[in-house]
Structure formats: C-alpha cells, structure tokens
Specification:
By secondary structure, the protein is mostly helical. It has a domain of about 120 residues. Strand 1 and strand 2 form a beta hairpin. The protein has a two-stranded antiparallel ribbon.
C-alpha cells in the first residue's frame, strides 16, 4: 500500500511535466520561429526561383523551334500573368496563418522553443541566412535532373498510349469488354 501511495505521488508530481511537454505551441512562439528562420524571405526567394525555373522550362521546350514575335508576346504575357497570380495568392499574410496552424498541430511548445533557441544562435542565424542559397542551388539541380527525366516520362506515356491503341479489347466505363476501334476511325 505504501508503495502504491509513493507511486501515485510520483505520478502526480510528474504529470504536469508530461502534460507540459505535449502543450501546443503558442501562435506567438511559432511566428517568432518563422521570423528567426527567415521564412518570409525564403518564400519570396522561392517565388523568384519559380519564375526563373518557369522561364528556363519555356526556353527548354522551345529550343530549336521558331517562335514568331506575336507568339513570344503571348508566351511572355502568360508567364507574367502566372507570376503575378502566384504573388497575389501566396502573400505572406495569407500563407503565415496556415504555416502557424501546421506548426501548432505538429510541434510541441518545447520543440518550438528549442528550435527558436537554435535559430537565434550564431549557427542557426547562419543556417537561416544561407537557406535561400541552398534552395536556389537545389532548385537548379532538380530542374537539371527533370530535364533528363521529362523525355523519359513522355516516352513512357507515348508507349503506353500505343499499347492501348494496339490492344484488341478495351474496357468501356461500365466494365464491359468491347472490340477496340482504331483511334483514327470514327
């Protein structure tokens, strides 16, 4: 009985410690963390990288093809509208509350406080300052990798389409088998 009382007392003393470790972080502490990590600058940098990546993608897709000045104007207009739309829809004021909510649902106050302490340290500040460079370099590497991957994906799509067209039996939406007709015939 004495052991049960001691165990019960220990649990009562330790309970606030366990409960505190599961405490949701305050919105203020998450906002401080986002500021310390330079998240707003990182998002702006990401939008700039997206614009540059889109420009490279357009240039890559048009490589070796003639584009008239009128067509180029249409392409440039579309790109400008796309970038404007992204910048209007992904403002920090609209994105920050979403990020704060995700952090609050994902991390405890103890974890946010620990990250905040790190990002306020010399090493943490250095990491936050260099993260846009890391993101830009990573984006360029992924763009380069995608330029070799996209033709392979397109080949896979073409081969699959040819196999479907060549198959003798296709399924209609009801699941019934019916003879296939060549795609060029009505």
């Amino acid at each position: 009985m004495k052991r049960l009382l001691i165990l019960g007392f220990c649990l009562l003393v330790a309970l606030p410690t366990f409960a505190a470790s599961d405490e949701r972080p305050s919105p203020e502490s998450v906002k401080q963390l986002l500021e310390a990590t330079g998240s707003r600058k990182l998002m702006d940098s990401m939008l700039n990288q997206m614009d540059a990546s889109m420009q490279r993608g357009i240039e890559e897709s048009l490589k070796g093809k003639y584009v008239s000045p009128a067509q180029q104007a249409i392409i440039d207009d579309m790109r400008a509208k796309f970038v404007t739309l992204m910048r209007q829809e992904l403002t920090w004021d609209t994105v920050e509350p979403l990020i704060v909510d995700v952090y609050q649902r994902t991390f405890t106050q103890e974890e946010v406080s620990g990250m905040l302490a790190f990002y306020r340290s010399k090493v943490g500040k250095s990491m936050a300052a260099k993260m846009p460079q890391v993101m830009a370099a990573s984006s360029q590497l992924m763009q380069s990798r995608m330029s070799t991957l996209i033709p392979k994906i397109q080949d896979l799509q073409r081969n699959t389409l040819h196999k479907l067209e060549a198959s003798e039996v296709l399924q209609d939406p009801s699941g019934q088998a019916e003879p296939s007709t060549p795609a060029s015939q009505p």
